[in-house]
Amino acid sequence: MKKVLSILLVLVLVAALAACGNGAQDTPAPVDDPTPTPDVAPPVDEDPPADDTPANDGTLRIGFSQIGSESDWRVGNTESVRQAVADAGWELIFNDANQQQHNQIQAIQDFITQGVDYIVLAPIVETGWDSIMMDVAEAGIPLILMDRSIDMPNQEDYFVSWVTNNFEDEGRRAGEWLLDFLEEEGRLGDDINIVELQGTVGSGPAIDRAAGFREIIGGHANLEITQSQTGDFTTELGMQVMESFLGRASAEGRPIDVLYAHNDGMALGAIQAIRDAGLVPGEDIIIIGVDAVLLAFEAIVAGDMNVTVECSPLLGPTVVQVIRDIEAGITPEQIIFSDVRVFDETLSLIFPDRYLSAADDLPNRVY
Ligand code: GZL
Prior knowledge:
Layout: H1 2-24, E1 61-66, H2 72-87, E2 91-96, H3 101-114, E3 118-121, H4 130-139, E4 143-146, E5 161-164, H5 167-184, E6 192-198, H6 204-217, E7 223-230, H7 235-252, E8 258-261, H8 264-276, E9 286-291, H9 294-302, E10 307-310, H10 316-327, E11 335-337, E12 342-344, H11 347-350, E13 356-357, H12 358-361
Parallel strand pairs: 1-2, 1-3, 3-4, 4-5, 5-11, 6-7, 6-8, 8-9, 9-10, 12-13
Antiparallel strand pairs: 10-12
Helix pairs in contact: 2-10, 3-4, 5-6, 7-8
The structure holds beta-D-galactofuranose.
Residues 70-71, 73-74, 147-148, 165, 205, 233, 263, 265, 290-291, 311 line the site of beta-D-galactofuranose.
């Protein structure tokens, strides 16, 4: 009986794959389509229509598992990949996981079933990928890690390339800016209370941006991180957590001097909470963000925010180049970092070799 069932299953799968091959995914899912990848193969036509498309027109099919749309950075990242794949003339099969790891794992499983040519994964957190990564390897589908990191035994064996940013260096640059800023203000010896809005718990950028910042300020005992909590990289939660930080600081009589937010989105939410508390953002509280999104540049120019550390989401063209290299038999670099630049409207006027003017670069911002 089992043998009959397994033969039937294979037949269904083969037929389903044939149905997929008829262009079921010919039009890439629009970026803003929240439709999750179907959990089951589409219905199989008994007599599929004559297929007049060429058996294999060389169009690569790229399965892209994206974390969600939690921030302007993420939206810019999705658009960058979508545009680069479209420019290459390939087919994008896009899945928005709505910030749920299990949705990403399901999407990757579906990509395997659909027999895509490449998988691009932006992993929401570092752990929990061991089994699905082994399935991808077993299926022989090259996987490109984009943006955040994974943490598993022999992880470098499971992706052909990691297109990313150096999150720990971003944290260090944020710490260095703070030391330079306090020194310019003559406050480097003062007791400074810092609160920290961390990114998604367990994510590479949250872990590494926290570590890099602490590495730099750790030698200054008078600079203390008095409160630290995740805002999950969203503006809404950043505002809510900042409200609780302000309430606790007032209750304990420990005023907040600095906010270090692991992304600009949370910093912008915190700015609203600071205003609601009757304080002046950018003056009463120094505000440090990461990402360098357009709204942060506007806040810096308006004086509501002090600095943002760039972490480029425009990774699509590099991902496409990695695929082109592999198609041409060229081994791509295993890790590809983007540059880290720091934008403000204060230190950039004094140290133009180390910091850039947000006002000058505002017209160039695209995400
Ligand atoms: C960083 C990226 C982070 C951004 C956030 O590469 O993973 O996720 O800093 C985004 O804005 O939500």
